[in-house]
Amino acid sequence: MRKILITGGAGFIGSHVVRKFVNKYPDYAIVNLDKLTYAGNLANLTDIEDKPNYTFIKADITDAIEINELFKRENFDAVIHLAAESHVDRSITDPSAFVMTNVIGTVNLLNAAREYWKGKYDEKRFYHVSTDEVYGALGESGMFTETTAYDPHSPYSASKASSDHFVRAYHDTYGLDIVISNCSNNYGSHHFPEKLIPLAINNIKNNKPVPVYGKGENVRDWLWVEDHARAIDVIFHQAKSGQTYNIGGHNEWKNIDLIHLLCSIMDKKLGRDPGESAKLITFVVDRAGHDLRYAIDSAKLQNELDWVPSLQFEEGLEKTVAWYLDNEEWLTNVTTGNYQAYYDKQYKGR
Ligand code: NAD
Ligand code: DAU
């Protein structure tokens, strides 16, 4: 049996990765470690929480003592590290939280792996889930490849770039088996409604203004979250040690065009007249240091490991809207803060 520590498994992408691994690999013991910050929601995992190969541990990766004790006790075979502060706007308000979790937290995990995996590095694996934002911003043309120089602009992307560098340094210096993937913007179910797509869905549903930063000209490359989880599965199992893979959807959208598409889907789903939801679009002051454009070249992943995105964007967006409208309770619990009581109700005393 392989025992895999997945960090940040109560978050958006982490919950999809945990679900995939728990369901696909009944012989693996999947340990989900999460601090349950505002972004962690155990209600994301109700469908798998009672599976025999799944365990949840509430812990903070910035606590080196707790992380060391855990590694000493558990004999993990691998780590898939997703725990992070993930929202760019919050990093502009409070960069320190991003340094603590994304840099110090990652180094704490690396130190524990270095210490407790000694003599067995070739049997173990440390997988860091990272972002395309480490590469900075593109102009009108070009794409990020795995050899694009790092040039982060926001405190969030600077912290993720730093953690990527530490992960590589532990490979080069100590010989840890590591892999890193850098992915573009994800969308799908269980996405916290501070990020553009779920925020817009929630606001349109409630007839509230949809804030578009600046002129809405910024471009993001959107990937369905389940395609990201599938890429992580493939890379985790097949990549050679020390490798990096870019993951992306070849699916670039200007924010304003995306919001118009979303409004037209919402009009149909909510039985509104065409154009009604678009009246909610409100241009607001731009994000500081707002990266103009991201676009991922994922040819290496496609050619070497045979991964391609499975879902067209319009279809994925319709599925996503349908999920939010069908899961009103999830959304209400998140927006009211009730979701934070789920741990006490379901897990305390287990
Ligand atoms: P998220 O904010 O939804 O989830 C992050 C999770 O980490 C939460 O469950 C939170 O409770 C947990 N966490 C935060 N601080 C912690 C700490 N100190 N100790 C333990 N757990 C902690 O984030 P997400 O969007 O699911 O992103 C997951 C990972 O993927 C991040 O590393 C992010 O940088 C990366 N990523 C995200 C995207 C995207 O589009 N969302 C794209 C590429 C890469
Ligand atoms: O590229 C990968 C990154 O994508 C991940 O590493 C991050 O964790 C993730 O949060 C995401 O970052 P972005 O900043 O691109 O995502 P966000 O949803 O915050 O914003 C998407 C775009 O929409 C961006 O250009 C800013 C803009 N925006 C965002 C919000 C929240 C708006 O115009 N209005 C908004 O209200």
TrEMBL record:
Official protein name in the record: dTDP-glucose 4,6-dehydratase
Lineage: Bacteria, Pseudomonadati, Bacteroidota, Sphingobacteriia, Sphingobacteriales
Entry cofactors: NAD(+)
Family membership: Belongs to the NAD(P)-dependent epimerase/dehydratase family. dTDP-glucose dehydratase subfamily.
Domain of life: Bacteria
Organism: Pedobacter psychroterrae
Pfam families: GDP_Man_Dehyd (PF16363)
Biological-process GO terms, alphabetical: nucleotide-sugar metabolic process
Segments forming domain NAD(P)-binding: 5-320
InterPro entries listed in its UniProt record: dTDP_Gluc_deHydtase, NAD(P)-bd_dom, NAD(P)-bd_dom_sf
EC number: 4.2.1.46
